[in-house]
Amino acid sequence: MFAALHNAFDPALFWEYRVALLTGLLQNIIIFVESAVLAILLAFVVGIASLSRHGAVRWTAIAYAEFFRNTPEYVLLVWVYFVLPLIIGTALGTKVKLSPHVAAVIGLGVAYSGFLSETVRAGLRSVSYGQTESALSLGMSGFTALRRIVLPQAVRRMLPEAVNQLVSLFKSTTIVSLIAVQDIMYQVSMISVAEMRPVPLYTGAALLYCVVVILATQLFQRLTERWRRRGWA
Amino acid sequence: MDGDRPIIQVRDLRKSFGSVEVLRGITIDVSPGSVLSIIGASGSGKSTFLRCLNYLERPTSGEILVDGEAIGPSTAPNGQRTSGASPRDIARIRSKLGMVFQQFNLWPHMTVLGNVIEALIQVKRMPRSEAVDLGRRFLVKVNLLDKKDEYPAKLSGGQQQRVAIARALAMQPKVMLFDEATSSLDPELTGEVLEVMRDLAREGMTMLVVTHEMGFARDASDRVIFLHDGKVEEDGTAAQVFGAPSSERCQRFISSALS
Amino acid sequence: MIENFNRFVLANIGALLDGLWVTTYVCFWAFLLAVVLGLIACLIRMRLPYVRVVAIAYIEFCRATPILVQLLWVNYVWPEVFGFPQTVTGAGIIALALQSSGYLAETFRAGFEGLPKGQREAALAVGMSRWRIVSRIEAPQVALVVAPLVINQLAVVVKSSTLVSIIAISDLMYQGLKIVNQWYEPIEVLTTIALAYFVFLFAISRIANYAYVHFQTKFGIASSQ
Known about the structure:
The structure holds three protein chains of three kinds.
Chain A: H1 2-8, H2 11-16, H3 18-49, H4 55-69, H5 73-92, H6 100-125, H7 129-137, H8 142-172, H9 184-195, H10 198-229
Helix pairs in contact in A: 3-6, 3-9, 4-6, 5-6, 6-8, 7-8, 8-10, 9-10
Chain B: E1 8-17, E2 20-30, E3 35-40, H1 46-53, E4 61-66, E5 69-70, E6 74-75, E7 81-82, H2 87-94, E8 97-100, H3 112-122, H4 128-141, H5 157-170, E9 175-179, H6 187-202, E10 206-210, H7 214-220, E11 223-228, E12 231-237, H8 238-243, H9 248-258
Parallel strand pairs in B: 3-10, 3-11, 8-9, 9-10
Antiparallel strand pairs in B: 1-2, 1-4, 4-5, 6-7, 11-12
Helix pairs in contact in B: 3-4, 3-5, 4-5, 5-6
Chain C: H1 2-10, H2 13-47, H3 52-64, H4 67-76, H5 78-81, H6 88-113, H7 117-126, H8 130-161, H9 172-183, H10 186-219
Helix pairs in contact in C: 2-3, 2-6, 2-8, 2-9, 3-6, 4-6, 6-8, 7-8, 8-10, 9-10
């Protein structure tokens, strides 16, 4: 077993393929950023909508959140990659093809917008209505009150949970390798096939991700702690 | 500007929350420069009445005119909706009314000065330097200029409420609405707020004050109304209402409140 | 579209139901294992002085590593290094269990640490033995508080189980993708599978929600949610 353990840790192999692996990791990061932006935008729209006075808007938003929170990411990803182009194509009358990268961003963005919209909603609700009332009583429009008074306070309260969600999203970017996006896991698979040595590569990948995620989490925690001490949250 | 016209006119104001009727037809005129205290037991509809005036609560039916303008659409008792102000009009009319809340409702992410000038910049589109000057003036008025760069969390309750008053005054409203402004304050702190309110009254500001502070109602107001169960049961000068109320309920309320 | 549905979904319903069974089987055992591992890790972390570092490392590793990476790692590396698991199904179960055991360990810890100290003291004052205190006073209360979160982890396991198809476990996704690859008609099959997962997961989330509300109001226990 110790021989096998020794075989499992092989930094030299990683170093040899560092270009390919880092390029792959870069893909993960790019997809992470793009889908995070999409998820956050959608989350705000849906989150704010879920608090609307109009029942139809509210229920649509709630249904949206429930659906995307309760559907597995991989299923969504596959569906976006295979089914969505067909549906759009039929609607527009032409043949549409979605690149794996775009499908990945849409799939992950939409999947996480469900969770993040709940975070947005909770953050908004945590700001007491009196804050809005005082703004309205001074003659501010509802929109201005939302923008200047409610959102600044709500966003600070959303941060911890939002960071959790984003870390999850980053971890999930690995599944894009399954629809042929050339991210780090894709590279790892290719290399392990070429080298016929899956063991050290998969071990290395696991450790690498572990380190990256823990570092990122620590970083975000420090940041939010500093913001909180400054009296922002 | 017609000096004789009441600055606030209310006609048969009714408000129900679901099946509970909280305001059962209030009709009243408030003349400019007068101080009106509104007293009554909890649940009598005092706060609801005040909040209808700046449309934070939507009346079920009845009419409210602020400086001659009807605020908000409302439904007449026969079910007919009278088209009233658009949201933009409502916002505009609200800026003529200043409201001070029981919970202060200062914005914690802005400094004291920031709180006071925010509406000036957002609503009146005042340039920032002008707003700051005006804001400072009103902070001086409530004796809190030295705290202008502090955040509300650092202030005592009394100080926060005074900032809230400055914030409302900065918009230079025609009428100030006080919704139990001292009810959340520790007894030692109510004095400083009441003093500001008395000064305002002396300067001729039109004020509607929902309060439990009978001392203020008796000494600082021109007119007192006693609400019971959504209706005006007693309406007269402070001397009349406190000295010789015609309603027995009012008498009992005042004596138990003063003891 | 209805006839397509018949052609691809109903015609293959046997294979799909087999896949559903495999999914259920894998999820069930993975969840069970996750709870056990999570409890052990939690207790080690809270009670044993030196070994707790190992537990902490284990928990952090499980939480920080993406499930896909864990799946591949357990499936390809473990047999060589540890000698087990010998089947892909075993690998799938272990990997899914690993992922959730980290979260569960932290959940249990939060539950235990959230218990008012007075509970223990009152039991000690009456003369209860340590084991009895844990089993009859602390554990039941912790169980009630963490129940919604634990049920939520079951949902996570089910969602993650969609990936086990890549190590050739014949779960629902595997069967579905097989049909899609065969016939190149993904719409009906994938939509059906998506809805199936949604219904199942929605049910689980409703149960978790019920547990949260019910236990809070009935027992007056403040949940850490």
